[in-house]
Amino acid sequence: MKPRIIVCGLGRTGYKVFRLLRQQGALVVGIHHQALPGERAGDVIVGDLHAASTLKAAGIQQAHTIVIAGGDDALNLRIMMQARVLNPRIRIINRFFNTSLGERLDHAVPEHLSMSVAGLAAPVFTFAALGSQAIGQIKLFQQTWPIHEEYVDENHPWLNRKISELWADRTRMLIYYMPAEGEMDLVSALVSGQKLQLGDRLIVGAQPRVRCIRRSMIARLLKILTSLRHFQKHAEAVVAMSIVLLVIIAIATVIYTSSDAAVSVVDALYFAVGMITGAGGNDKVVEHAPSSIKLFTVLMMLVGAAVIGLFYALLNDFVLGSRFKQFLDAARIPQRHHYIVCGLGGIGIKIVQQLHASGHDVIVIERDTNNRFVNTARGLGIPVMHGDGSFAEVLKASNLENAAALIAVTNDDATNLEIALKAKALTPKVPVIVHYADPDFARMAQQVFDFETVLSPAELAAPAFAAAALGGRILGNGITADSLWVAFATLITPAHPFCGQRVRDAAMSADFVPLYLETNNQTIHGWDLLETSLSAGDILYLNMPANRLHQLWRYTPPQVMVS
Question: Is 523 exposed, middle or buried (0-12, 13-18, 19+ CB in 10 A)?
């Protein structure tokens, strides 16, 4: 029998998960705080999400898995505890914004898997900024690979090329094959020497490359000059007050030396500085001076106290306040080929981290000076500009005209559109990637405004939640022609249906695509993988249609699936 799945919280992400699971033929029941138009009462239970009565009405005691998809971490935690009390054996897929808490729960609570919408969506935003038309992601060989679809048309270089010629390349992983005519799995196509025909589709994973940055001495000198220019901009008040202070000291020194020929320049300077700063000095300079000089000294003491007070205040504000940090950030702003991330929320910080890890220059524009991720970004050496990305001056200061791409991922869709439109008006050639929460309007926005990419986190994350609900810790997923496929790792046990079989035979009979095999502390890929016989202890990485995962559950309990 297929497992019974409950989806709790039918917001944007939850309802997308609910519909995907139902589309894949799963036995799914939804729970929401209000009725949904077009949904029958038996399919969606209305009530308090964390109430025992609501969960019981949804069949929690007979359910195999519950997906908690709400956006409130505290509420999700309460639902998780109530569900575990009512059904101690239930498998829990839990959405958490606080990834640290989610990881702790994964270790502390059996059969608990925490997932983050930001963590699932951010790589696709990153790949889009790098120029990849990614439809998803997959984790292979300790890296996150972008997944894209190759549609074979009359101009495609792979037309009439054997699929077997593409199989052995480790930098390109074949994920799934959909022939234009008939039905044939990828492994059968490999073995039979099938050629790619017009209209065929291939899902392919591409190995990400880390960019090595080497800056020349000329580039470093230009950076220093740029830093000086930014220093003048951010320290104008301190510099101006320093000049005023030096002028006052110089005037006092000249007057003291001219009033008494016996007073040396050094003594006059020493007394002037001590008098103005309040540190004291050689009083003999004015001890026998005329009354006018003494009155001048009194005036200098008063003026000096005011100037010194203002100077110290400005200096403290520059060094200890935000101005010095702004100067450092401004001095580090890249000049060209960099990525501008507007909005440092959950998705924004992960995009920044991934671009930085790949060796790319990044700059952040964030309006909130108290944003929780600002210190995280600065800890990576990434400059953070505090300002509104929809203002032309802010975008120009980030060197938009020479940027590789701009990514607008604030928490407000209208702000993201405003930033993107302003960027396009200033520099039409710079690619713009836009965050839009509603999946349907995201597609409309891309069509209406002709942006390079408009992405919805709910659209990107929902397949991963649905795939995880269907089985195992998912390494990757994607949707092609309304069919959800998932990539995961399965531990081969003596009772496993694939144990003792050749990978090629098992793949053709179960309609999965083998990716690679971990056995005896080594990885096997390509043609060697197809001819390898599976034995107990091996870990097979594969992908298959999500609606066939339940067939493995009859043989393999969920706990043997590992990531």
Answer: middle
Banded model confidence at residue 561, pLDDT cuts 50, 70, 90: very low
The radius of gyration computed from the CA coordinates of the chain, to the nearest angstrom, equals: 32
Residue 149 and residue 248: Cα distance in Å, rounded?
Answer: 72
Q: How many CB atoms lie within 10 A of CB 98?
A: 16
d(CA 86, CA 497): 32
Residue 527 neighbours by CB under 8 Å, 6+ apart: 167, 168
Extract the runs of DSSP E, i.e. beta strands, from 287-326. none
Rounded Cα distance, 362 and 344, in Å: 12
Residue 278 has, within 13 A of its CA and on its CB side, a CA count of: 9
Of residues 305, 250, 245, 277, the one with CA closest to residue 258: 250
Q: Is 437 helix (H, G, I), strand (E, B) or coil?
A: coil
Q: How many CB atoms lie within 10 A of CB 438?
A: 14
pLDDT (tens digit per residue) in 330-385: 556 788 889 999 999 999 999 999 899 888 999 999 999 889 899 999 888 888 88
pLDDT winner (highest mean) among 67-76, 140-149, 220-229, 442-451: 67-76
AA letter at 3: P
Query: What are the angstrom distances between the C-alpha of 363 and each of 211, 330, 489?
Result: 17, 10, 36
410, 401 contact by CB (below 8 A): no
The number of beta carbons lying within 10 Å of the beta carbon of residue 56 is 13
The structure tokens listed for 460 are 């990107």
| Of 412, 420, 497, the residue nearest 454 (C-alpha) | 420
CA proximity to 106, closest of 437, 494, 563, 425: 563
What is the end-to-end Cα distance of the chain in Å, rounded? Answer: 25
The residues facing 149 across adjacent strands are: 203
The highest-confidence range among 360-364, 442-446, 479-483, by mean pLDDT, is: 360-364
Amino acid, res. 396: K
Query: Angle CA(351)–CA(353)–CA(357) in degrees, nearest 5?
Result: 120
Tell me if residue 356 falls in helix, strand or coil: helix
SS3 label, residue 345? coil
Give me the long-range contacts of 280-287 (CB less than 8 A, separation at least 24). 285/256, 285/260, 286/256
- C-alpha dihedral (292, 295, 300, 303), degrees to nearest 10: -130
Strands 136-140 and 474-480: antiparallel
